[in-house]
Amino acid sequence: MTRTVLALSALAVLLATSPSMAETGDATRGEAIAQQQCARCHDISRGGAFKKMPPSFQAIAIYRTEPDIWARIIAPSPHAAMPEMVWALTPQEVQDVLAYIRSLDGPVTIQGQ
Ligand code: HEC
What sections of the chain are H helices per DSSP? Predict the structure, then answer.
């Protein structure tokens, strides 16, 4: 019995949509999706400038945690001009874009603005 309960709660954790526990994304696919779905508003390139509106993916990668980024893709802040990508992307595509943004985290040489 205890074992069943443990197994069920483990399953519940696996099924939870928390980004770190969902299937992992593919950064290469994510870049292609970002090009199609995000680049018309965001600078999605590595080394993208900081202090831009909307923020570059480079800045997002460095300033935000993974769960934060995920949440903002799924449910952007209500007063902002970002469409709800939850309607445009499959959960796997969200993971892929997230993986792409996360891949930008790390030391970069930013060109002067
Ligand atoms: C129509 C323009 C538009 C498109 C398309 C768009 N965004 Fe945004 N996004 C914005 C704006 C404006 C903001 C800033 C306001 C906000 O935080 O919601 C923003 C904010 C964000 C943030 C939060 C930034 C922060 O401050 O932490 C994330 C993450 C993000 N976008 C990811 C994406 C991803 C991923 C896509 C593509 C799947 C995308 N956006 C497509 C306009 C857009």
Answer: 2-15, 27-37, 57-63, 66-74, 91-103
| Domain that includes residue 28, residue range | 24-103
pTM, two decimals, is 0.77
Whether residue 83 has its Cβ less than 6 Å from ligand 1? yes
51 in ligand 1 pocket by Cβ < 6 Å? no
CATH number of residue 61's parent domain:
1.10.760.10
* Residue-wise pLDDT tens digits, 52-97: 899 999 999 999 999 999 999 988 777 777 877 777 899 999 999 9
Ligand 1 atom nearest the C-alpha of 98 is 35
The count of C-alpha atoms lying within 13 angstroms of the C-alpha of 16, restricted to the half-sphere facing its C-beta, is 11
Pocket lining: 91 vs ligand 1, CB cutoff 6 Å:
no
Query: Is residue 28 in a domain?
Result: yes
* pLDDT per residue as tens digits for the range 48-61: 988 889 999 999 99
Domain count, the chain: 1
Nearest atom within ligand 1 for CA of residue 85: 38
